[in-house]
Amino acid sequence: MLNNTIAVNFRELLQFLKSTDFSKAILVGLAVTVPILLGLYFDQLEIGLALCFGAFWSSPSDVSGSYRHKKIGILCSAALVVVVSFIGGYLDLPLFVLIPVLGLLTFSIAYLSVFGFRASLISFSGLLALVLSFAHQLQNLEVYQYALFVGLGGLWYLFLAVVWHRINPTGEVEEVFTDTYLLTSKFLHIRGRLIESNTDRDDLLPELQKIQVQLTENHDSLREMLIVSRKSSGQSMYNGKRLLVLTQLVEMLETAISNPVNYAKMDDIFSRHPGYMEMFQRLMFRISDQLEKIGYAGSDRRKLPNNRELKECVARIKEEITKLRSIPKNENLEGFLMLQNLFEYQEKQVEILRKIKWLLDDPKPEELELIDEEYARKFVALPDYDPKVLVQNFSFASPIFKHALRLAVTVMIGYGVGTIFEFQNPYWILLTIIIILRPSYGLTKARSKDRIIGTLIGGAIAFIIVSLVQNTYVFAVLGIASLVAAFSMLQRNYKTAATFITLSVIFIYGILRPDILTVIQFRVLDTVVGAALSFLATLWLWPTWGFLNIGKNFEDSLRAHKNFLIEIGRFYSAKENTVAPLRITRKKAFVETSNLSSAFQQMVQEPRSKQRNIDEVYEFVALSHAFLASLASLSSYIQNHSTTEASEGFKSAIAQIGENMDRAIHALAQEGENADFSITNLERSFEDNRSRFDTMAWDFENAVKTGKVRNLQEAYLILEQLRWLFSLSAKMLKLSSKI
């Protein structure tokens, strides 16, 4: 056990040392160290610091995504910090003028976040430059010269980022793939545990939903990195192969979600056929284990697992199900059909896994059928950079507008407090505010706590080291090492990152100032004040509570599900060869379900007084996941089986389920009393709809029993899914009217 633990920890350490977080931290350390050393060598420390600041401020936009977008992001960051540094050089104004100007600048820069995630990082670079313009008083350079060298520092960082990409062009893609393999493995392992009747599903299902959100985000990141890169640099064989692997991973997630759906019925079947649960679970765990091995194998083809164990598991289950089929008892029919469907889904997972391993084993180009570039681009959602977005979001209905305004007011208060009470470094309060204050209450609260704890730990460690060592060279080495460690941990563990940030700041100040113990004292005090102001701002300044916005998530999720349902019906009826519209609507449904889960997680982190209708919201989220699982099951079946002609009953059922979805959307959209859409009318129209659906289901079931349906397995699966979808849509409709 101990040896296994050591092996796992060592493997995780190796993964961390190969990660982009660590390589970026090294890159940032190099970007800021070289200019300072050159400045000291040529006795031009001020120029060295300007270059260092420019490189440091341009680094936040260097995040996962397409190489082209990354370069543009770094360039935009460099341009923004040049402008902000130039303006910051002339902020030597009276306090009553400076504070409003500071607020206006903060709002303007923060408001750029309306253009998306990468724009928010560019905005963060500008805010860093604005705040730290208060920290550095120019001695030998003019303001325009300083701003110019800051821009050159940004270009210096861009140069290093480009060089590193040339050295390791696939490193970032491979890291996201590794993370996706491991998350998918964990997802499948939990699915395997869920088929046990005595497992705690109330704990496992929310965990499964969180992993699904992470996987959806990873799939989107990989699409951007692989598809946008192909668009900008031409189709490469590496990108083409990895895009095929990504397609298989997406298919694996959908297959996993699609079955089993009804756990209560699954428990009943396994109770009557007890040996099958263990066999299926063993197969699911083996698939999970192989994905984990693929994740850790990286680009080493020799470490790819073989298929022997999987073949044995599949062969045994197939043999046992054949035996069950041969027993001439009517009561075995339902059990056989359900186990047969479950087996076919797991058999498909094995086939997907084999395809992934084959693709990773470097097949010959002529053996591949690469995905068409125009088709692939349909699955990438690019941000909208139209200036109209600025106008559209300029209202209190926009969370970004409220956050930018909240941040601006908090920064003004923070600077006023720091100046009036004569803090040693008021800009440290501002720095804490722009780092901690996030659009959501939960994240701001967590960051405030982690920042304070990390600062206290870092201050204590620095105090001990300073008490034992008084050597500026040691401080320099520790300061740079702490900075690298901070950037390495920033996305993984913010509390640890805050500890190393505090250490790096204190040691760097220790080089410049002899009173380092005073620096530690004020660093801790400024951090506590900044964190307290940030936390209070999320409570009192235009708070964005989850219950105010989650209705929009409900609507978006319902619309995406309805579109997916309609596309399934169209594909099943038309028997077309093209699956692009079906897969696009499927992707949208997965994304919107993940967004709904994220909104709910944000809501549960808020004060209890703000968790309006929390039980109903949780039930709606669970129903949304169940509805998507059922849709995925239907979609997967009709894409991978030769199906019979769609009956009028099937078309009618799809229409009636869609009608429930429309009513639910309509109910959520009501802002007040509406005579044409009262709850009474809603319930009456729903009962009529249910009556029609029950009649259709009864006719369909009779057709199955009397042998009038050619494909019994197909009819059984579709009838069960239609009933389940109608039941779920009815529950969502009733919840929508309550919410």
TrEMBL record:
Residues 75-343 form the Integral membrane protein YccS N-terminal domain. The keyword Mitochondrion does not apply. Its main location: membrane. Keywords: Cell membrane, Membrane, Transmembrane, Transmembrane helix. The chain crosses the membrane at residues 21-41, 72-91, 121-138, 144-164, 404-421, 456-488, 494-512, 524-542. Signal peptide: none annotated. It is found in: Cell membrane. The keyword Transferase does not apply. Residues 415-536 form the Integral membrane bound transporter domain. InterPro entries: Memb_transporter_dom (IPR049453), YccS_N (IPR032692). It comes from the Bacteria. It is a multi-pass membrane protein. Belongs to the YccS/YhfK family. This is Uncharacterized membrane protein YccC. It comes from Zobellia uliginosa.
